[in-house]
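We include this case.
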Amino acid sequence: MADRAMPDLHEYHACLLDCGLRNFPCTEKDVSSNGALVADLKLSWKSAFVNVDQELDANMTVRSNLTYERSCVLWNIAALESYCAAVHEDWKTKDGRAGALRRYGIAAAILKHIRLNLIDDANGDDGCSPDLSPQCLHMCERLMLAQGQMACYEAAKIRSLTANQPMHNLLAKLAVGVADFYNEVLKASQDNEMLGRLPITSRSYGAHAKVMSMLYQSRSQYLESMADKSQRAFGYEIVRLSKVTSMCTEGLDFMGSSSFVETAATTEGDVGNMKQSFDLLKRVANERKIAAEKDNREIYHDDILDLKHLPIIQGQDLMRKPVPLPDTLKPQSLKRPFFANLPV
């Protein structure tokens, strides 16, 4: 990726906003009155998912208003922020994890801004392109929040290695938070309009989100079982460990099913990592369960309850706090104002 891609997009968006202040057409209703048709103003973009959903019309969506152009530019900025968070930030370092969290938060805020404030004005009478539909924007926004919550979980996991007190409860809550966001991605992907307009994308994102939700739910139960052990609630621990092994088995079974293999938007390496995570967690939980059951039979004699009688793990969401859009998207940030030499 070119070093200038992100700042260039920010600068271009600031210029577009500046044009709007000069009465350039910002909605399709403005087009005729502001002379956009006479000037032959045409702004065209392909759908972001045209290479995935082959049945999408590969032709450009063409509009004559700046709000549409701004929406598409912002969409690409959000995509770049997500890419940089995953690839350019070093998740092994504190600064890298903080950078990833910040980038995912910005990406989610941008997608939400498009959905709530721009798409009604950006779209024409013939509707919107699939990637700029409210349903798709909502799904992608929730995906950004899920990945940001993962960065929070990883940061807490590293801190727990040197903490004076175990952080099992906190980690369990953060893991539930990750699972909750992925459940929202899954739910959004199953929207009827999403399935109708982006059938491959919606199913592939949904399959990936389902696996990630299952993995983090399994992790949350295992972490809570460790907290139960430290509190000498051995009966609770055994029940949760049994749940972990069954959830891991369920996750592995789903990953082996045709509904996942044929649709998941996941690379071969990622699939291997997720399977490895399930396998490792299942083995560790099963080994600990065997030892805990032996100790409970011979020493502790705790009651073994049904899982539904155990305290529910409440997720801790660290991504709901609103993130402001970067100031570099605004005209005031321009080092060379677009209309500096023209009267207001």
Summary: The longest strand covers residues 43-45.
